[in-house]
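Note to self: the last two entries modelled the partners one at a time, which told us nothing about the interface. This time every component goes in together.
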Amino acid sequence: MAKQPKTAISPTRNEDYPEWYQQVVKAADLAENSPVRGCMVIKPWGYTIWENIQKHLDRMFKDSGHVNAYFPLFIPKKYLEKEAAHVDGFAKECAVVTHSRLEDDGTGKLVPASPLEEPLIVRPTSETIIGEMYAKWVQSYRDLPILINQWANVVRWEMRTRLFLRTAEFLWQEGHTAHANSEEAWEETRKMLDVYATFSRDYMAMPVIQGEKSASERFPGAVSTLCIEAMMQDRKALQAGTSHFLGQNFSKASNIQFQSEAGELEYAWTTSWGVSTRLVGGLIMTHGDDDGLICPPRLAPQHVVILPIINKEETRTQVLEFCERLRQRLRSLRWHDDPVEVHVDARDIRGGEKSWQWVKKGVPLRIEVGPRDIENNSVFMARRDTGEKKSISVDEFVGNIGTILDNIQDTLYQRALAFRTENTHKIDSKADFYNFFTPENQEKPEIHGGFALAHWDGSAEVEEQLKKDLKVTIRCIPFEGEKVPGKCIISGRPSAGRVIFGKSY
Amino acid sequence: MAKQPKTAISPTRNEDYPEWYQQVVKAADLAENSPVRGCMVIKPWGYTIWENIQKHLDRMFKDSGHVNAYFPLFIPKKYLEKEAAHVDGFAKECAVVTHSRLEDDGTGKLVPASPLEEPLIVRPTSETIIGEMYAKWVQSYRDLPILINQWANVVRWEMRTRLFLRTAEFLWQEGHTAHANSEEAWEETRKMLDVYATFSRDYMAMPVIQGEKSASERFPGAVSTLCIEAMMQDRKALQAGTSHFLGQNFSKASNIQFQSEAGELEYAWTTSWGVSTRLVGGLIMTHGDDDGLICPPRLAPQHVVILPIINKEETRTQVLEFCERLRQRLRSLRWHDDPVEVHVDARDIRGGEKSWQWVKKGVPLRIEVGPRDIENNSVFMARRDTGEKKSISVDEFVGNIGTILDNIQDTLYQRALAFRTENTHKIDSKADFYNFFTPENQEKPEIHGGFALAHWDGSAEVEEQLKKDLKVTIRCIPFEGEKVPGKCIISGRPSAGRVIFGKSY
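The predicted structure of the combined assembly is written out below.
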């Protein structure tokens, strides 16, 4: 009997996917839980991935005409209350600031003092406070559009948290725009969803489906919520970004009015859109394998790690110097306008252990350099994505580094796309649908079904039933593909086209 | 009688410096007060200056071996309490989170619900929560040093706030490092102060004095606080950055212990260092004039603004195309490794008004282009720093753009340095000292004296007296210059060397 090959991460994805995820986060040193309930500490390796996400997204936002600004962390309760659906959505889980001082209660114990006249909410999202400001800034149609983005932390008092995927505090960006008419606001909503989809494809190497949420999954207060949905390796969906058309709901709540070109007083049309540190979770679950993280090169903190092999003390200097020269050659190159990031790991620890650390951290290329390699002016290259290992001449490696990294990036994308395609099925009956989403009926019961493309009658009742019976929701009403009418698999009533169902994070 | 020249900002610096500051912030559209008590909104022009500050500082931190990470916004009260001086320093003004939900009180009014078991403090600074994490991460001397920086928002419930200079919430970076011995921690403390001083000089064009704070001005819990101090145009001091040697105070409070190379269990030595959005206030007050902001080119959101002069409709296309070509030529250049930032302002508003808007926003170079300039292949260039205006050939302008920007940067620095030198005086008697700092005795009573270099006996009593009588504090015990002993101007007791006194923000 063949022995099970040993993997760096235990359990494997097949054995216990949620626990595999936690172990990858730990093994790659990405983040950990803090002693503050629900709040994570993002460690340097994880934070650098987030910085890279920020860098590229920020450029895309600016290239599409947006500027950054910063609004207060706190929202007075009365602003949150102005939009009814909005406050309903967020009041149930928010951090409430009630005092502005701690004082000794007389026994040496510090207790909250100086109660505030009105409680402040730590922002769960900033539509209301930003709306207050826009109302002051906008008088005439000439003041529109306002195209502002904010990079910030937000807090939602989630009961069940998971590193990156769902935490009480998380980091994100929130775009908030105001326009003179509905068409322009709609165009913005779609444009920013496109930016997210392009970013996911080109940087995350994560294929996403663009679409619209059903009414029950809308952002509280939105007229329409658009989203990108990705499939993780447990075949569950991850909502990776949202772009909301808010209509005039928030401008009416905040009184964002302007004099139109025709001289009429009108309410502005607003949008908001955001992605968060959740993307790091998506990256892990899209590409990681049973040996740990696999970083797509466009977001990797290091592209290449050079591992000097020093078996004899007398070769140390020669090997280290060779590695340093190689590092400098690579560092002087640019790949997609950014430097090639290279690290020489010269720590005095066992070579195998050292190599495995970088495997688990997901560095795209590991380069081993020993005395024999130096003699041949070659290096021993290992690709993290395919596991391919080979000796390659230094000049060939340096000369082709961009091509190799492009190839890794593309391999990861194609692999994820193939996985999603394999696990997306058209389903045309209730029985097949229930079967698809019932783990016990699967060959691999630990894995859920994937995406089901099925007809839905547009009713909230069907959604509720599927959520209750199967924990399945409509991930989105996809934009792509022809809309072919059919019949709802549950009610038999008419459907305008297939929608995407799945279990989700 | 000569008529007073009209300025864009009213009042002028001489008339009312604090009000001039507020008016510059407003005229340059940098920030404004929000409806949330003490919290500002940083508007795009001000935020871009902050982004540029971040970009350059972040690179300097990384070049000196630091990495970024992110720690929780909230600090459990019990952590804050672990370091006695620290909690004393921050408990009096902090935002306290006591509840995790809002609920209807039965009358339709939302009230705080689900009280927390232990109140959480919105971080005023992160030594305690980061210390908790370091205690977990550090076991052996091999785990040291830890060299981490965090970009974050912090909250201190200040009673009197001023945009950028003192706000309840502000943005900053806080470096937190842990070391195996005192020497290394001291070296780090000094090194990061040097980074701040270099940044202030080379990017802010703001000369600073490096030194150590007296005991009474130390960061709560620090063994020693180092600082950079700059002189504003009202001759007051601005503390622009601090670097703290924390000794073992916080590692004992958080139990950051490690096995030394000799096998002993020891407490780590820690440092922390930070600068904040206050720097934007320092930039305004160092360089601004009675026409508004003057941005040092290294931090300016735009280096050049091109203003098309369209007097006749038939020249519009020609002028705009010329401007766009000029923009593209400039944009393709790099200055100190960054693109030259150029904006063409083609708005249909009066030329004079348009030009003044950019004067007030402090753009280093304004370029006017009209039909006659195009005929001559020249542009009309106005420098914001000197007010110099001249016609210059396009090729000369484009070819020398880097030199011109360098010259502006240097002019601003030299001007600020000369101003500080003029307003720094050795003072050797109590009478002269009181005279220097008593506005009524000055020729220009609305302006305070400046920096006084005077002998001090090292006692807190003298400091208290001067603070009470004159609102003057020791800004720092400067590192530079020979230490010549003398006698305290107040007590007559021996002094090791002159220290710097001033009024401050």
